[in-house]
Amino acid sequence: MIPHIMSRTPPHPTREQIELPLVLDCLSDPIRLAIVYQLAQQERVSSELCCGDFNGLAGKSNLTYHFAKLRDCGLMQTRVAGTNRFMRLRREDLEARFPGLLDAVLQSAAKDADRLQLVAECDVVEAK
Amino acid sequence: MIPHIMSRTPPHPTREQIELPLVLDCLSDPIRLAIVYQLAQQERVSSELCCGDFNGLAGKSNLTYHFAKLRDCGLMQTRVAGTNRFMRLRREDLEARFPGLLDAVLQSAAKDADRLQLVAECDVVEAK
DNA sequence: TCGATAGTTCAATAAACATTGAACATAGGA
DNA sequence: TCCTATGTTCAATGTTTATTGAACTATCGA
Question: What pTM did the predictor assign?
Fold first, then answer.
């Protein structure tokens, strides 16, 4: 039987392969910034979210596209479990490569949460 | 006599108009990141550099394009003096809007200076 | 006043990007 | 075993992007 593509974990860059321009470019898109922000908010509750939790941000296939970019640049990790894909922030790797960067971006985003139309923390938790 | 366009200072966004996605997008381009980095290195010597100081990074008209993007997003300020345009980083405004962000990016860039082909500090100073 | 220097503007081009919907693959439950 | 939920793949579309060179404008100094 031929191995099934979809059940395999997609490729991720190693920590050392994470590149600053790619990370910044990823974070510069409002939808991807919202994904990363929501992931960060959720971290206190659980470190993972699945694709469906972001349905409010864009259409399904568009989200797949943005997830791939976030994965390719090293910001997110995807874990496959059954029919779900669980995402988490690669906090430690980011912190090791670019100390303070992710937090500076997240705090900047939090400051402009209204302007950027980001979900408030309570929204995320309640939506569970 | 009709006022001469080129002698006027180009428009800049106010501090409040500076937007996070635009700033990140600006910094995600390797040439623009190099410009900002060089400007930051130079700050200890003088807070300003003129277009010609960046000739190593790209062609003249391409530089004009990147300078415009940096100015439009609020990262740089341009001052016109004779036939020169002097650039400086809008450090205070950036710090007020997004505390810690610029420094986190600059430190990250410094860590990857080789990979990003950024000018070493001594190169900048010696090139004067 | 002329020439050189500094930088801008404009049009053209090729590549990358975000977005959509339709078709598909996979896993789990009735 | 079939139905449903979850998510991916693919092709098509229109937009934005970076880069180039040629023509231009403005300023300074000889």
Answer: 0.92
Long-range contacts of A61-65 (CB under 8 A, 24+ apart): A62/A31
Cβ of residue A72 closer than 8 Å to a chain B Cβ: no
The conformation of residue A36, written as its DSSP 8-state character, comes to H
Q: Which residues pair with B88 in a beta bridge?
A: B77
Look at A20 and B116 and tell me if their CB atoms are within 8 Å. Answer: yes
Our measurement of the distance from residue A28's CA atom to the centroid of its chain's CA atoms, rounded to an integer in Å, reads 13
- Write out pLDDT tens, residues B67-119: 999 999 999 999 999 999 999 999 999 999 999 999 999 999 999 999 999 97
**Helix-then-strand count for chain A, H and E:** 6, 3
Bases of chain C within 7 A of a CB of the protein: 5-11, 17-23, 25-28
pLDDT (0 to 100) of residue B81: 93
Report yes or no: B20 and B54 within 8 Å, Cβ to Cβ.
Answer: no
CA dihedral A74, A77, A80, A83 (to 10 degrees): -90
